[in-house]
Amino acid sequence: MSKENRAFDTQRLGTGYGFESHPRRAVELPPTWVLVVGLSFLLFALCFWVYIGLNLLAPTPRPPRRSEKQYTTILPDGAPSEAKELPCWLDKWAAEKEAAKREAAKEPGTKEVVPPQMPIEEPELFMSVVVPAYNEEERLEGMLEEAVEFLESEYGSAHDGKNGQQKYKGWEILIVSDGSSDGTVNKALEFAKEHQLSQHPKLKRGPWSKNGSAKAPHSTHIPHGSIRVITLEENRGKGGAVTHGMRHVRGQYIVFADADGASRFSDLSKLVEGCRSIEDKHGRGVAIGSRAHLVGSEAVVQRSKLRNFLMHSFHILLRVMTPPATARIKDTQCGFKLFSRPTLPYIVPYMHSEGWIFDVEMLMLAESANIAMVEVAIGWKEVMGSKLNVIWDSIGMAWGLALLRACWIAGIYRRD
Ligand SMILES: Nc1nc2c(ncn2[C@@H]2O[C@H](COP(=O)(O)OP(=O)(O)OP(=O)(O)O)[C@@H](O)[C@H]2O)c(=O)[nH]1
Ligand SMILES: [Mg+2]
Question: Is the minimum distance from the CB of 387 to ligand 1 under 6 angstroms?
Answer without folding.
Answer: yes
